[in-house]
Amino acid sequence: MACPEWSEKLSAYLDGALEAEPAAALEKHLETCADCRQTLHDWRRLRERLRALPVPPPEAGMWRRVMHRVMRRSTARPFVVPRRLFWWMAAAACLLGAGLAWWWQQASSPPSPSRPAVNLLVGYHADTVALTLGDCPTWHLVASNELMEGE
Amino acid sequence: MSDKKAEEFERLVRAHQTTLYRIAYRLTGNRDDAEDLLTEALTEAWSAFDRFQTEDGFVRWVATIMTHTFLDWKRKASRIDWVSLDNPMNEDDEENEGSWDIADENADPETMAERKQFWRDAQRALDDLPSEFRAVVVLVDMEGLSYEEAAQALGCPIGTVRSRLHRARAMLRERLKHWLQEP
Predict the structure, then answer these.
(1) How many beta-carbon contacts under 8 Å exist across A and B?
(2) ipTM score for this prediction
(3) What order of strands is seen across the sheet that includes strand A140-144?
């Protein structure tokens, strides 16, 4: 096992990625440290053997399939919903649909005096804009140019 | 994009297909995933091909996209089945074992058996590395990229490449120690 303080430098040294000064110091250390020499040797051998690892040939027709998919996707890329999001999106669509149906029902039915909260009136008269939300006094807003100017 | 562009893209892919496939295979460790990775990366490359300038950088450019895609897949682990369907390291898979003989048709049976055992062990050791470590080993140790090039491909600082490579080598050495002695 390499000395911990030299180990990472050994790895960079193997790749020729160590600057001159630390490289010289490492070489001096290597003269006296058998463990670091062994580690460097093993890593060099490991790299050689990994580089020589064979790659089996691709399956027949692989490149034809790949290029066909690449070109097909680029001309008409479908909208793909990730499977994990599908049910969330479906639930959101249902909620939206229910909300729209409720809104449509409310909007199409005549206003009822017994349900003042949904009755929105926008009135404009001379210099006065009155916005009344139902009959609820706390939501009754009056904006008057005269009032504003008076302040 | 124009037909001329498409022809140029296909020409570049054909010219570099051996290298591109080799990188994809080394990243994923099996042929099915290598094919998927190539499809994803080349689709992205094609969609950005208008911005691509020099032919010299084509392999590096696609390799960078492949590396990002591979790491992204690994982060979303459910996206890909990392138990290979055609893993040539599977001792029971006689058909795939056959495909490895091509590179070693002149070797004697004993040497061949030993090499295959090393390939199996090495592949398993690579498979067990964290994906970021595996990617840096593939790019630097196996494909011979510089630290700068690997940092660009991985989208991380050079110091990170250096430390990941160091840790990956330490792990691989531990796993493959008995294969590293001189013959």
Answers:
(1) 106
(2) 0.81
(3) A120-125, A128-133, A140-144
